[in-house]
Design goal:
The chain is an alpha/beta fold. The strands form four sheets. The protein has a seven-stranded parallel β-sheet with strand order 8-7-6-9-10-11-12, with helices on both faces. A six-stranded mixed β-sheet has the order 14-13-15-16-17-18, covered by helices on one side. Strands 2-1-3-4-5 form a five-stranded parallel β-sheet. Strand 20 and strand 21 form a beta hairpin.
Length: about 525
């Protein structure tokens, strides 16, 4: 059976061809919200650019949806919160248009410095007014870059070839990291104060909305030049228009606007303002790159894998994916095991990371979400995945606690998961050996070496002769093959834990028969 994919904005043919190799693809651009709601229920994936508004209403109607892909960097037109609640993966293609946006920024910067658009219009009108278009050089000017991500770094690299001094502001970049790029990291207040040219490269979030406004412009140098090729709304356009008209700002160049098209913007009437109609990603190469990226990610998700650039789930750096994957797989299996052996509604989940694994501290959230997914999967009827796991847990009132410690006695690394309910709790510990060998090494006080795969039976019993044999006989009588067995005890003659790997599901009637064996305290069948 092929999956159904809706492409609701124009997409480069290279991406369409990739999708058609695996999916049924419908291309329907220009749909209204009502039209989208009416048809979205039959699709497994939706791919958009900036034209389609993927609202909460659309997402609620998407009964089969697993993936929403944005062929570009921003996801402002997608209700990611609604998608997260429903467990839909939202991904973008941030690297595909990096160079296009970088080069457009540089073009705007140079055009602004040398007044090229105005000079072009003047000459074509038959005028020859050289003195009217006196420009400035880039050499030794201070360029302030707000947002030092992929595009910000590429802009800095190119600006350095003009012998500019580069300062940047980004709350997630350390001074040491900035210095590796030859850039001085400063506060945003310092950047506004010292920069001759300011260019913004941040997402539009609460903290960046109208970041450049009347008050911040007042702190800038007289004659500053401002460029926005990132997101409309980062710049207060009314305040910028006033500042350019007064001469405080020598000029501005904008590719994006709060309202698009910006037919009511005062900036369109000012000579010293250069405007383009959201062309940052509009190159043949960029459109091809983002289409290919978003198509491959779509297929990966529909095949049961992960998207490379998920925006509503923890991100794993590409270079760490192979390292983190075994821990994520282990934590999910531990969660599945724990939730099937502890009776009652879960109230609290505690996860402790110990040993070498804490070196990946910034990426532990991904592993935690996989554990929660494993816990919830066996007990809920709704889809639970890496995207909505934490949301679903919070919705059910489950408290999640995460701790780290360097102490990991006996093991180089250890994940310990404790699930608490109103009637009891269970603790499971696991470890990764070598590069990828995962094992559960303890259940409660009982140590073991358990491969967390397939079907198993956990049986607590009295450590005495004549218990394990009859229990195994019950399974043999019903032609259930035992593939492996471990028995662990703390003290002879007291409670012990037996773990049986079996080759098939065990009916509840057989489990009841096994529980009736003298000396068996409890027995639980678990699917991992």
């Amino acid at each position: 059976m092929k999956y159904n994919v809706l492409v609701s904005d124009p997409l480069a043919e290279e991406g369409i061809e990739i999708l058609r190799g695996f999916c049924n693809v419908d291309e329907k651009a220009g749909l209204s919200e009502d039209e989208l709601v009416e048809i979205i229920g039959k699709y497994d994936a939706l791919i958009v650019r900036s034209g389609t508004e993927v609202t909460e209403r659309v997402i609620e109607a998407a009964a089969k949806m697993k993936y929403i892909g944005r062929a570009g960097a921003g996801v402002d037109n997608i209700d990611t919160d609604a998608a997260t609640r429903k467990g839909i993966i939202v991904a973008n293609a941030p690297e595909g248009n990096t160079l296009a946006a970088t080069e457009h920024t540089m073009a705007m910067m140079l055009a602004l410095a040398r007044m090229i658009p105005s000079a072009n219009i003047s000459l074509k009108k038959g005028e020859w007014k050289r003195s009217k278009f006196m420009g400035v050089e880039m050499n030794e000017k201070v360029l302030g870059i707000v947002g030092f991500g992929r595009i910000g770094r590429e802009v800095a690299k190119r600006a350095q070839s003009f012998n500019m001094r580069i300062v940047a502001y980004d709350p997630f970049i350390t001074p040491e990291r900035g210095s590796q790029f030859g850039v001085e990291m400063v506060s945003v207040e310092e950047l506004f104060r010292i920069a001759d040219i300011i260019t913004v490269h941040t997402p539009l979030i609460k903290e960046t909305t109208h970041l450049i406004n009347e008050k911040t412009i007042a702190t800038m140098k007289d004659g500053v030049r401002i460029i926005n090729c990132a997101r409309g709304g980062i710049v207060d356009e009314d305040a910028l228009a006033d500042a350019v008209s007064s001469g405080k700002v020598a000029g501005a160049a904008l590719d994006v606007f709060e309202e698009e098209p910006p037919i009511n913007s005062p900036l369109l009437t000012i000579d010293n303002v250069i405007v383009t109609p959201h062309l940052g990603a509009s190159t043949v190469e960029a459109q091809k790159n983002v289409a290919i990226s978003i198509a491959h990610q779509c297929i990966d998700v529909l095949k049961g894998g992960a998207a490379k650039y998920v925006v509503n789930a923890p991100m794993i750096p590409t270079e760490l994916q192979e390292t983190i994957e075994p821990y994520a797989r282990l934590s999910e299996k531990m969660g599945r095991l724990a939730s099937q052996v502890v009776p009652g509604a879960i109230t609290r989940v505690e996860i402790t990371y110990a040993g070498d694994i804490i070196e990946m501290r910034q990426n532990l959230k991904f592993i935690t979400r996989m554990a929660i997914k494993g816990i919830l999967d066996p007990i809920l009827q709704r889809p639970v995945n890496i995207v909505n796991a934490e949301f679903v847990a919070r919705e059910r009132g489950i408290i999640i606690a995460e701790t780290t410690t360097e102490d990991s006695p006996g093991y180089r690394n250890m994940i310990t998961l404790t699930i608490k309910t109103k009637t009891g709790e269970e603790t499971i510990s696991g470890s990764v050996f070598g590069k990828s060998r995962v094992r559960i090494v303890a259940i409660g006080q009982f140590t073991m070496d358990l491969l967390p795969e397939g079907s198993i039976i956990l049986s607590r019993h009295i450590d005495r002769p004549g218990v394990i044999g009859p229990a195994a006989t019950v399974l043999g009588k019903h032609e259930i093959n035992i593939a492996g067995m471990q028995d662990s005890r703390v003290k002879a003659g007291e409670e012990a834990l037996m773990v049986l790997n079996v080759d098939s599901d065990v009916p509840e009637s057989v489990m009841d028969e096994m529980r009736s064996v003298s000396g068996i305290l409890s027995a639980t069948f678990v699917r991992l």
